[in-house]
Design goal:
The chain starts with a strand and ends in an 8-residue tail after the last helix. Helix 1 crosses helix 4. The longest helix has 22 residues. It is built from seven helices and seven strands; from the N terminus they run E-H-E-H-E-H-E-H-E-E-H-E-H-H. It is an alpha/beta fold. It is globular. It has a seven-stranded mixed sheet, with helices on both faces.
């Protein structure tokens, strides 16, 4: 099983945080979250490989420093397109399972990836982790990687389940505190600021004195 992390260009990242963070701060937040997620994925030691699918040049130094593979996506055509390119890349290398998750889940823990992978004990099927509000998809394990059409966007958790049922697939939902915690809105920043500090992302938010903007 390979881990795949699609990562959009940081110039376009986290627009919904604009009321609180400047453009430069949103870029640095995105890079810190990417580094946290890569650290958790590699520390879990459950993946045969880790692949970042992106056309963001600013992310390349972090990816190279961690010794992780980099798939240059063709254009900024969205998460579904990047996921599809990564799935095809894995299939061309005869890799049978993909664990796909975004880079904006900085509280993800290595132990959570270990648990998810141990639970995905099927040759053909899907394991899915929803976001905290059960609207988004924060982790998707697929065997094979192109098992179903990618439906990232609004209500993607329900859409992926709907696709799985439509295709009569084995589908399992798992809930995970760290993986389910993504950073999209000012309320997410408020919530992460109240968690025990344990990541680069939290250290960065403390450095820019996020708490003074949330009152």
């Amino acid at each position: 099983m390979w881990a795949v992390i699609p990562f959009k260009r940081i110039q376009q990242a986290k627009q919904r945080l604009a009321p609180i963070l400047s453009s430069e701060e949103r870029k640095l937040l995105s890079l810190n979250m990417l580094e946290d997620v890569l650290e958790a994925a590699t520390a879990s030691e459950v993946f045969d490989g880790v692949l970042v699918a992106t056309n963001c040049e600013e992310a390349a130094p972090i990816i190279r420093r961690k010794g992780i593979l980099y798939l240059q996506t063709s254009a900024e055509l969205g998460l579904n397109h990047a996921a599809g390119e990564a799935a095809n890349w894995l299939l061309n290398k005869n890799i049978g399972t993909m664990c796909l998750f975004p880079a904006d889940i900085p509280l993800a823990k290595a132990s959570e990836f270990q648990h998810l992978v141990s639970c995905h004990s099927v040759n053909r099927g899907m394991t899915i982790v929803p976001s905290r509000d059960k609207g988004g998809t924060n982790c998707l394990i697929l065997s094979p990687p192109d098992l179903l059409p990618f439906c990232f966007g609004a209500d993607s958790y329900a859409e992926h389940l709907r696709q799985g049922l439509k295709l009569n697939l084995f589908c399992r939902t798992k809930f995970s505190d760290g993986i389910g915690f993504d950073i999209d809105t000012p309320s997410d920043l408020r919530a992460i600021s109240m968690r025990p500090k344990q990541t680069l992302t939290q250290n960065y938010l403390e450095k820019i004195e996020l708490h003074s903007r949330l009152n």
